Amino acid sequence: MTLLAQQLPLITEPMHYHDTSAWGFFSLLTKNGSSKPSQRSYSLERLPWVIENVNPALDTYVSQAEFIRPNRRTVNVARLPLMFADIDPTAYNRHLPPSEWQRLALMACVDEGIPPPSLIVFSGRGIHLKWILSNPVPRAALPRWTALQQEIGNRLAGIGADPQARDASRVLRLEQTVNSKTGEVCRLLWMDEEAPGVPRRHDFDMLFDELMPLTRAELDAKRQHRAQVQERRQAMRVVGGSSTPTGAQVGFNGRRLAWDRLEDLRRLAALRGGVDEGWRMLFLHWSANFAALSGTMLARDFWREVDALAREISPDWRWDRSDMSTLHQKAQAFASGERVEFAGREWPALYTPRNDTLVNMLAITDDEQRQLRTIMSKAESARRHREREEKARRAAGAVERSEYLASSLSRQKPWESLGMSRAKWYRLGKPMS
After folding, report:
1. pLDDT confidence tier of residue 297, bands split at 50, 70 and 90
2. How much is the pTM?
3. Which end of the chain is more exposed for a tag (fewer CB within 10 A), N or C?
4. Contact 431, 418 (CB under 8 A)
5. Across-strand partners of 10?
6. Closest to 117 measured CA to CA, from 156, 174, 150
7. Mean pLDDT, to the nearest integer, of 251-273?
8. Highest-confidence range of 1-5, 223-227, 345-349, 364-368, by mean pLDDT?
9. pLDDT for residue 245 is more than 80
10. What CA–CA distance (Å, rounded) separates 237 from 258?
């Protein structure tokens, strides 16, 4: 029996977290010697067929996330079905056998207060730890996923967690394919089973609350308090303006706001039926800026991510990299933690425009603002605030003014609410409306 026939039925690990009934795409990357890596994207429904036909003699990697387009870029993430850590050998654990890698990983999780992973996969050199989620994280929550991913990686840094392998577009070596550097075969070492052959799944919100310095409820409370106190100042501003600095390391809520603004720009383009030629570079600039500011993509992937955004704006658009060179430099500076000092204050290295700047620059109409989540004028913000206040009063039992007046009239002059004279009302024995 050939190696291919022996090993292909054993490739099942991706089936534990990728949903073949869902809409979306995954990517497979292969390397063949010194030739350039080959990458292809497939619809999720084709996953069983793809892994049945993979060549196990080649270095092969599979995406951990699922994407809205056949393009493995962070800006195209659809869902994130798991958390993971890529553990590379260090000086003291370089020669560990697989069984010792398993023991080391489980001990590190105990020491760092991390629940045991659902799967431990031997990569042929190091290991991959994977926490499969009971419900995939949607793209809207990518900043939260990224923050938790970084926290897990930081806690496992002592055993070699790769700081460059924590992004949503990451591919990891596919089970039962060879690692050409060592000649070892990538294979599943350990599974935390909740039933025979079924890995334990983890609730993302519970993991987040357990591992992050602030729980989701605390983050929401903090955000609501900030919105009440600084509703008009919450929008981030361009470096060089007069506002409160956010610091080079934008906080979690700032990263989420940046991602939401990127999504708003995409929604705006859809509302307009596409981006006209004269507006394309402006849309691309701000989309790339907010993608970088959200902290969800690596600085080294800047050009690939920007290219994906450009193709989304217009597939045939030939844009010039020189127009984005300044933003590229700022993205690199931001990623390295650099700060910009202006007027005695420290600012993020990237652009942080206020809402009015974006509304005016992109000529966003009132009707368009009503369909966006974060980019809005002060007038639209005030309108939404009044709406929220009105809903809160209704929930507390308040009634509409017209209802109140009608009720008041019914109590003071009930004959008028019944459409009769005062005398007739008395004759009929003071009936109530």
Report:
1. confident
2. 0.80
3. N
4. yes
5. none
6. 156
7. 91
8. 364-368
9. no
10. 12
Structure confidence at residue 232 (pLDDT) = 45
Paired strand residues for 130: 84, 119
Q: Dig out the tokens for 189 from the structure.
A: 């070492």
* Cα 343 off chain centre by: 33
Instruction: Tell me which residue range forms the domain holding 353.
Output: 233-387
> Based on the domain organization, do 383 and 413 belong to the same domain?
no
94 plus 174 within the same structural domain: yes
Three-state DSSP at 81 gives strand
Q: Are residues 243 and 296 in the same domain?
A: yes
CA dist 84 → 87, 327, 328, 374, 423 (Å): 10, 30, 28, 30, 82
User: Among residues of the chain, what percentage have pLDDT more than 70?
Assistant: 85
pLDDT of residue 241 exceeding 60, the answer is no
| Strand 127-138, strand 77-87: pairing | antiparallel
Residues 245 and 336 in one domain: yes
pLDDT tier, 154 (very low <50, low <70, confident <90, very high otherwise): very high
- Measured CA to CA, the distance from residue 128 to residue 180 in angstroms comes to 17
Domain-embedded: residue 251: yes
Residue 166 in tokens: 């924590």
Quick check: is 97 in a domain? Answer: yes
Q: What is the mean pLDDT of residues 189-217?
A: 90
85 near 128, Cβ under 8 Å?
yes
Q: Please report how many Cα atoms fall inside a 13 Å half-sphere around the Cα of residue 154, on the Cβ side.
A: 9
pLDDT of residue 431: 77
- Quick one: 433 and 338 in the same domain? no
Whether residue 215 is contained in a domain is answered as no
Domain count, the chain: 3
**Are 128 and 156 spatial neighbours (Cβ–Cβ below 8 Å)?**
no
Task: Give the torsion through C-alpha atoms of 143, 147, 153, 155, to 10 deg.
Answer: -170
Say whether both 278 and 319 belong to one domain: yes
Say how far residue 402 (Cα) sits from the centre of its chain: 45
Tokens matching residue 417: 């609410």
CB 407 within 8 A of CB 413: no
Burial (Cβ within 10 Å: 0-12, 13-18, ≥19) of residue 53: exposed
Residue 363 falls inside a structural domain = yes
The token duo for 384 is 């939404």
